[in-house]
Amino acid sequence: MSAVSAAAAFDAERVRADFPILGQQVNGRPLVYLDSAASGQRPLAVLRAVERYETHCHSNVHRGVHALSQAATEAFEGARERARRFLNARSTREIVFVRGTTEAINLVAQSFARPRLGPGDEILITGLEHHANIVPWQMVCAQSGCTLKVAPIDRRGEVELDRLLGLLSARTRLVAVAHVSNALGTIVPVKRIAEAAHSCGALVLLDGAQAVPHTAVDVRSLGCDFYAFSGHKLYGPTGIGVLYGREELLEEMPPWQGGGDMIRTVTFEKSTYNELPWKFEAGTPNISGAVGLAAAMDYLESLGIEAVAAHERRLLALATGELERIPGLEIIGTATHKAAVLSFTLRGCHPHDLGTILDTEGVAIRTGHHCAMPVMSFFDIPATARASFGCYNTEADVHALVAALGKAREVFG
Ligand code: PLP
């Protein structure tokens, strides 16, 4: 199906009915949820899968011979296989459950980068990154003496590819890049970057937090070494996410956290570690979170990720066109390829005030630096207002946003 016909066939009203939370009123107005980049809402299919697990299967995993423990283990490891298919990873040994993108990146920073990198080595990121893909590398640099390099962005919010390629050298050990920017929506040409990084002998980590709800991800075709994402951006629960890592790399990496489940044997003199992926999963995991995440993947794939993406592109185009006509409104981030994120400022109105006024109209947007302070510094602004779209948003939501912005303009003259 072409992108156009997929969008036409997509019934967002029907999809919306799958999300009970969207049926409520906020401040006496129907809720218009435009904050999916911060956290997506959960469909009934996810809520029910979690409820089913909690009601019928819950126990601790891996350690019990009794029926419930086996059911929980089956559910948890079944979710791992689901995540493997979602990413087209080769093996479930490459799927590590973590709390979210932040924990995944910290795991790679501490277990992969810290033991191997030292003075003279470089980690390359871009000017677009979320703090979760900046601070863990700064910590590693302080710990190991390696250097953090940053590829700049341009005024459209695109990574300056030539300059990024120019920063790659034999010193570059790791390139860590967002697949999609949360602050601006820019889709980064990560496959091209991965090829260039590999040709210099560097490894590649992709921060997929904002990509997974909008695009099918195939880690093998992207050619990345690590891929990180969070369940809650994907219509799944909070507190669960995935780190994909190539098996050969994970195999060589030392455990990050120690405790139960990640060991094979323990004596006071020495411990030996479990095999992949459990070597990286110390302690009782978020079992119901994994079950919910698997259900979210089923749900999104049942809608068709391409159909969702085409629908969101249509909403983004509509909203961009409408907002461009509002006097005093400036869209921040005008990359050629964007996911469904629209950042903007309105002259004379601080984004926080704008967010508050929109909330009184029932319109939920996010305001602030979006955990991307360097992006704000680059544009020389303290914050933006950000509307972001998900599979359940409709044209009516865009019109409600535009109407609420009209009210804000009346207030701020
Ligand atoms: N990276 C990007 C691009 C994000 O948008 C986010 C969250 O907004 C994160 C990382 C961190 O995700 P989490 O807070 O779920 O760990």
How would you characterize this protein structure?
Helices cover 42% and strands 17% of the residues. It is an alpha/beta fold and 413 residues long. It folds into two domains: 3-30 and 304-412, Aspartate Aminotransferase, domain 1; 47-301, Aspartate Aminotransferase, domain 2, CATH 3.40.640. Helix 3 (44-57) runs antiparallel to helix 11 (287-303), helix 5 (101-116) runs parallel beside helix 6 and helix 12 (305-324) runs parallel beside helix 15. The model has no long low-confidence stretch (mean pLDDT 96). Pyridoxal-5'-phosphate binds next to helix 5.
Q: What characteristic shape results from the CA principal axes? A: globular
Radius of gyration: 22 Å
**Largest sheet features:** 7 strands, mixed
Ligands present: pyridoxal-5'-phosphate
How many domains? The number is 2
Question: What ranges have pLDDT less than 50 throughout 5 or more consecutive residues?
Answer: none
User: How many individual β-strands?
Assistant: 17
In CATH's first tier, which class of the largest domain applies?
Answer: Alpha Beta
Helical content stands at 40-55%
